[in-house]
From TrEMBL:
Orotate phosphoribosyltransferase-like domain residues: 29-218
Entry superkingdom: Bacteria
Protein's UniProt name: Phosphoribosyltransferase family protein
Positions of the TRSP domain: 282-352
Keyword Electron transport: no
UniProt xrefs under SUPFAM superfamilies: PRTase-like (SSF53271)
Source organism: Halomonas llamarensis
MF (Gene Ontology): glycosyltransferase activity
Length: 385
C-alpha cells in the first residue's frame, strides 16, 4: 500500500505531507494556517485541541482518553507536563485520564506568567514568545513526583522535538525526579521522520527509556511563498506576564497545575463561579478559556454538554495568525498584565452565546472577549442583511 502524499497550499507557501500512521485521520485532527511570524510561516491547527478551532468538549475528552490509554507506564504513577500555552489543556486532560487508569498522576505545565523563584527555564526557538519557565512544585504534587518512574511530556504536535529535549534534560536533572526511568513523548501529531527521530533521541537523556505516543504521524516539507512577508504585529505579546504577582489569594489558574496538581480516581468539584452565570439552556453556547487557563473552563463546558446543552469549547491565545486559509475570523482582547498588547481568538462560532473565563482575577478580560464576540456577531448579521 502506498503512503498517502498530500499538498496543502496556504498563504505562507506550500506544505507537502507524507502520512505514515493513521493518515485517514488528517481531516479529523488538523487544519492549516499561516503564521504572522517571520521565524516560521506555516501552522498546523489542531481541530481537537480546543485552541484555534471550536470543538465539542466530549471530543476533546475522547482524545485525552485515547492518548492516556496508549501510554504504557513503567510504574503506577506519572508526572505529566504540558507545554504552554497550546498544550496546557491537552496535558491536563491526559493527566486526568492517567489518574483514572492508574494509582494517580501529577500534572504540571510550563508557563509565561511570572512566578516567584522559577524552577527551570527553557526556550522555544520557533515561537514569537520564545522563553518560558516552570514554577516549583508544591504540596501533594511535590511529594507525589518523588516516587514516580514515568515522566510524560505532552505537546499538540512535534516537528523537531528540540524544545521537549531541553525540557526533558532540565527535569531529569532535578533531584525530585531521581527515580524516573521512562520518558514518554506524547502528541496528537508527530512529524518526525526517521532522521529527525534519531536526532531527537540523540538530544534526549540517554540513561532512561524513551517511548513515543501519537495519534497520527507523517513527514512534511515546506516551500515558502516569496510574496508572503510575515511580520509580527506591533501589539503582539512576547513578554512574561506579571498579572499573578498583583493578587494575593490563590487564583483559579494557580490551582489547575501551575504549581502541580494530583489527579486520582476522585476529582475535585468545579467551583460555583463556573455555574453561576446566567445560562440560556435552550441556546447554543461556546465556553472560552483564555491563554493558559484552559482545563477548568473545559471541564465546565464538558459538564454542560453532559447535562444536555449544546456547547463548544475553545480558548484565546497570544499567537498571531493570518486570516484566511482555515482561519475564518479573529477576535481580540487586551493581554493580561499589559493592556497595550493583544491576545486573539480565532474561528469564533459567532452564532453562539459566549461564556469566557480568565482565571486570573481580571474579569474585564473575559468581559472584553465576550464583548468582542457579540460585536463581531452583530457586524456579521449586518453584512448578511
Amino acid at each position: 500500500m502506498s503512503t498517502p502524499r498530500l499538498i496543502k497550499d496556504i498563504q505562507a507557501g506550500r506544505l507537502t505531507l507524507t502520512l505514515t500512521e493513521n493518515g485517514h485521520r488528517l481531516d479529523e485532527l488538523i487544519a492549516f494556517a499561516s503564521r504572522l511570524n517571520p521565524r516560521r510561516g506555516y501552522l498546523f491547527v489542531s481541530r481537537v485541541l480546543g485552541k484555534h478551532v471550536p470543538v465539542r468538549p466530549s471530543k476533546m475528552d475522547a482524545i485525552h482518553a485515547e492518548l492516556a490509554q496508549a501510554i504504557k507506564l513503567r510504574g503506577s504513577t506519572a508526572y505529566v507536563v504540558g507545554m504552554a500555552e497550546t498544550a496546557v489543556g491537552l496535558g491536563a486532560g491526559v493527566a486526568r485520564h492517567l489518574g483514572r487508569l492508574h494509582e494517580h498522576s501529577v500534572f504540571h505545565h510550563t508557563t509565561r506568567f511570572l512566578v516567584p523563584d522559577p524552577w527551570l527555564r527553557i526556550r522555544e526557538a520557533h515561537s514569537h514568545a520564545d522563553t518560558m519557565h516552570m514554577a516549583r512544585l508544591e504540596g501533594d504534587a511535590l511529594h507525589a513526583v518523588k516516587t514516580t518512574e514515568d515522566l510524560v511530556l505532552v505537546d499538540d504536535e512535534i516537528s523537531t522535538g528540540r524544545t521537549l529535549a531541553q525540557l526533558a534534560h532540565a527535569l531529569i536533572e532535578q533531584p525530585e525526579l531521581s527515580r524516573v526511568k521512562r520518558l514518554h513523548i506524547v502528541s496528537i501529531v508527530s512529524w518526525l521522520d526517521e532522521a529527525a527521530r534519531a536526532q531527537l533521541l540523540s538530544l534526549l537523556p540517554s540513561n532512561i527509556e524513551i517511548n513515543f505516543v501519537q495519534l497520527m504521524a507523517g513527514t512534511f516539507s515546506f516551500a515558502a511563498n516569496p510574496e508572503y512577508q510575515a511580520t509580527l504585529p506591533a501589539n503582539v505579546d512576547v513578554d512574561f506576564c506579571d498579572a499573578l504577582s498583583a493578587q494575593s489569594a490563590p487564583l483559579p489558574l494557580e490551582r489547575q497545575g501551575l504549581y502541580g496538581m494530583v489527579f486520582g480516581t476522585y476529582e475535585t468539584l468545579l467551583e460555583d463561579e463556573f455555574f453561576s452565570r446566567n445560562l440560556h439552556v435552550n441556546k447554543p453556547h461556546v465556553v472560552y478559556g483564555m491563554g493558559e487557563f484552559l482545563d477548568t473552563p473545559f471541564r465546565a463546558a464538558l459538564a454542560l454538554e453532559t447535562a444536555g446543552m449544546d456547547v463548544l469549547f475553545q480558548s484565546s491565545t497570544r499567537s498571531p495568525i493570518a486570516l484566511g486559509d482555515e482561519v475564518a475570523n479573529k477576535l481580540e482582547h487586551p493581554a493580561p498584565g499589559d493592556s497595550s498588547k493583544t491576545h486573539f481568538l480565532y474561528n469564533a462560532p459567532l452564532q453562539r452565546v459566549p461564556l469566557a473565563f480568565d482565571g486570573i482575577g481580571l474579569p474585564h478580560l473575559s468581559q472584553a472577549l465576550e464583548a468582542a464576540h457579540r460585536l463581531h456577531a452583530h457586524n456579521a448579521q449586518g453584512q448578511v442583511a
